[in-house]
């Protein structure tokens, strides 16, 4: 048995996950982003409810939006200040008295989809999250692939939108949370879609309103989605030409639009050098459970 959590900037989704990957006693608790003692308290309170059922060495495994340096365990987290710069696994293990594992949430998502979701049976999987921003993860032979600093599959960062001297205002070059400008992440997720829509039409709308208006044939929403899909498709085609994944599970809030996944899939395959005849981008099978299940699977590995 394990305690698993999917920690986001707004909520901590926490549950017990048993040997059969069954999720039990699930709770959703607001994330105390700025208070370490309160953050630790969420896990301590949850663990105290199940302490009779847990063995001493049953771990806590946490998927979160951020990165843990492989050598020091020091966390980089843009939206949870109290864990940023802290060796989270070590500090939580000391406070809670059991092993703690941490995994990037996009890696947890794609690991779960590769082992027990829509990408089962595929050797190479690239998974992408179109959530608030853009995330991703790489799997080879059932294991997460990362570099020496723990990064892998992070296709959202690196400047791809560059203004030209001829048309310096025509390209949407926005500041990115990573400190660069013009990263895909600035227009690739839900906030990015909204930013792009405002840039193109001077209109404010939520991402769900933009996708719904596009599905209804609205001209301005169609222009936004056209640009959005073309930018994402070009980057994804380059990734799939480089790393020949045979399936790309798509999660995150924007994946709720099946039409958007279909549109993106068609454009990605249009842009790939060697595209399959069948869809390569597919909707998540595990949905909102992928983070918890991926955390459980990562603890086993
Ligand atoms: Zn960036």
What does this structure look like?
- With 301 residues, this protein is α/β, with parallel strands linked by helices.
- It has 2 domains: 2-107 and 289-300, Nucleotidyltransferase, domain 5; 121-284, Nucleotidyltransferase, domain 5 (2-Layer Sandwich), CATH 3.30.420.40.
- 37% of the residues lie in helices and 19% in strands.
- It has 9 helices and 12 strands.
- It has helices at residues 36-50, 88-96, 105-116, 185-188, 190-201, 207-215, 219-242, 258-271, 290-300, and strands at 2-7, 11-17, 23-30, 60-64, 67-68, 75-76, 100-104, 124-130, 134-140, 143-144, 248-251, 281-283.
- A 5-stranded mixed sheet has the order 3-2-1-4-7, with helices on both faces. Strands 10-9-8-11-12 form a 5-stranded mixed sheet, with helices on both faces. Strands 5-6 form a two-stranded antiparallel ribbon.
- Helix 5 crosses helix 7 and helix 7 (219-242) crosses helix 8 (258-271).
- The radius of gyration is 20 Å and the shape is globular.
- 43% of the residues are buried.
- Zinc ion (ZN) binds next to loops.
